[in-house]
TrEMBL record:
Pfam family, one: GerE
Source domain of life: Bacteria
The keyword ATP-binding is annotated on this UniProt entry: no
Gene source species: Agathobaculum hominis
Protein name, per record: Response regulator transcription factor
Ranges in coiled-coil conformation: none
SMART domains, per database record: HTH_LUXR
InterPro entries membership: Sig_transdc_resp-reg_C-effctor (IPR016032), Tscrpt_reg_LuxR_C (IPR000792), WH-like_DNA-bd_sf (IPR036388)
SUPFAM superfamilies for the chain: C-terminal effector domain of the bipartite response regulators
Transmembrane segments annotated in the record for this chain: 24-48, 366-386
Gene3D superfamilies on file: Winged helix-like DNA-binding domain superfamily/Winged helix DNA-binding domain (1.10.10.10)
Length: 526
């Protein structure tokens, strides 16, 4: 707008807005519409989705809980295994001392072995009842018949297991899986349908490691085995092995607890969540690979996961990806304390099928897209409404300025209403045709004076505007591009002191009514 004194206001409401304020409102809405379009684009590409971070937080929380649970369970079993070792050691010493026998006297004496096992079974049952395990055992380095071919790996001992497990809190009958018949009958135990009198130590990984262990604290000799099959059964178990020493400190055998695959699955059921069913497992880890063949899996309900093969790990920012048999799982893992017989670190893992996460992410993305699309439509509608509201008063103001009716309605735009009010006030005062009010004369003179700075091409374009041509028309008439015309426009606006095409048209109309238009177009000359 021209930087000059404001025209006198006649009957103009004080709250009318300016053209500049209307333009600010309009462009603000357009900026918001562009922002909505950007949000829509980011939503479609998934950049704005918080699903990955939220899933990572959920998986990390679940993983921390599971790791703490696994660690607590293994620590508790280790402590109970050490207590059982001390009980077996003490009972062994008392048993041999009361008979003035050496440990080697147990070999080739089935009756003596049965008597010792009978004495130790109550301690095993007590430990079993107070532990979160599916079985307990002890194995001493002696055999009932050293002449047998398998005598080097066949060792006396008792192995008790729960029969008919149906929950994580086992109860009911206890079966004697290994041990003498006389010892089982003396304690009222039924024999397992795959019973054998002695244990095959070749099937216990780490047995020899424990037997050759030398140290002061039993905790230093404790080992966990990988998942191993129970002989002649369909079950798999992992065993805790604790050294059993005599009074001189010599390791005479091992004892410990059993965690069967069935019991582990019952103890660690899947956890349902918004991303699907979280599965828990304990697995030896070799580099970036989980050895599922040696792992213990919790319940796998709702997934196709099984304890076979290997699972590759790919680290990520929010979560890790686990690949098993070309199937992807997502989750977290961490190494927990626990010494394995094969030397591999033990990882506690929490994961969920990738499909569940993808479904959740897709739902979240659809929500973002719909929200952004609604925002964009709303902003475009508001921009269109404001544009219409901005342009219509200008048109009405021009019509009112041309009209001689005295009951015209204000347009709501201050500059247009001031001009219209002035023209109508002059009509009421019936001024002479040749005289102009000093305010209008000042505006006209200043505008004409500014026009002297226009170039020839700019003056030609200004004339075309005065004759009613649009930008595209002028482009064709002058054989130049629309962009070039718009470039000249910016120079014309700057030199004349106006800020928009509508403002320029308004002033051209004023000059036409004052019969000073030609003077402007000629650059100040008559």
């Amino acid at each position: 707008m021209l930087r000059s004194r404001r025209l006198a206001k006649t009957d103009i409401p004080a709250g009318n807005r300016s053209i500049g304020r209307s333009l600010v409102l309009y462009w603000l809405c357009m900026a918001l519409a562009m922002l909505a379009a950007a949000l829509l684009l980011l939503s479609v590409t998934g950049v704005l989705s918080r699903t990955a971070r939220q899933f990572g937080e959920t998986a990390a929380l679940q993983q921390n809980n599971n790791a703490a649970l696994f660690t607590a369970q293994m620590d508790a079993l280790s402590a109970q295994g050490i207590e059982l070792s001390e009980t077996v050691s003490g009972e062994l010493e008392r048993f041999l001392a009361s008979r003035s026998l050496s440990f080697d006297a147990l070999n080739d004496d089935p009756a003596l072995i049965a008597e010792l096992e009978t004495a130790l079974i109550p301690s095993l049952e007590t430990t079993m009842a107070g532990s979160t395990c599916s079985g307990v055992y002890f194995c001493l380095d002696a055999t009932a018949n050293t002449s047998l071919p398998q005598s080097k790996t066949s060792r006396m001992g008792v192995y008790l297991r729960y029969s008919g497990l149906r929950s994580a809190h086992p109860s009911g009958s206890t079966a004697c899986f290994r041990g003498t018949v006389d010892a089982a009958r003396a304690n009222g135990l039924q024999l397992h349908n795959r019973w054998n009198p002695e244990l095959d130590t070749s099937l216990i990984p780490g047995y020899r490691q424990v037997m050759t262990w030398e140290g002061d604290r039993l905790s230093g000799g404790c080992l966990w085995t990988e998942r191993v099959p129970l002989l002649d059964t369909w079950e798999n178990v992992t065993l805790l092995c604790v050294p059993v020493r005599d009074g001189s400190g010599t390791v005479r055998g091992v004892c410990g607890m059993e965690l069967s695959e069935l019991y582990f699955g019952l103890s660690h059921s899947t956890v349902s969540g918004p991303y699907g069913s979280f599965v828990m497992l304990l697995a030896p880890m070799n580099g970036d690979t989980l050895l599922l063949d040696k792992a213990m899996l919790g319940s796998t309900e709702g997934t196709n996961l099984s304890a076979s093969g290997e699972m590759k790990i790919r680290g990520g920012r929010d979560y890790d990806t686990f690949i098993w048999n070309d199937t992807a799982y997502l989750g977290k893992y961490q190494i927990i304390p626990g010494r394995l017989a094969d030397g591999y670190p033990l990882a506690a893992v929490t994961l969920v099928p990738e499909s569940g996460y993808r479904n959740r992410a897709q739902s979240a993305r659809i929500g973002w897209v719909l929200g952004s699309l609604g925002f964009l439509v709303g902003m475009l509608a508001l921009a269109a409404a404001l544009s219409r509201r901005f342009s219509m008063p200008i048109t009405q103001g021009f019509a009112a300025a041309r009209s001689q009716e005295q009951d015209w309605q204000p347009t709501g735009i201050r500059e247009i209403d001031e001009l219209t009010a002035y023209f109508h006030s002059r009509l009421r005062e019936r001024p002479s045709e040749d005289a102009l009010p000093w305010q209008v004369e000042s505006l006209v003179s200043e505008l004409i004076d500014r026009a002297k700075g226009l170039t020839g091409t700019e003056r030609v374009i200004l004339r075309y505007y005065a004759e009613g041509y649009a930008v595209k028309d002028i482009s064709g008439l002058l054989f130049i591009s629309v962009g070039t015309v718009k470039g000249h426009n910016s120079h014309i606006y700057s030199k004349l002191g106006v800020n928009s095409y509508d403002s320029l048209k308004a002033y051209l109309d004023v000059l036409r009514r004052c019969e000073r238009l030609e003077e402007l177009l000629q650059g100040g000359g008559k």
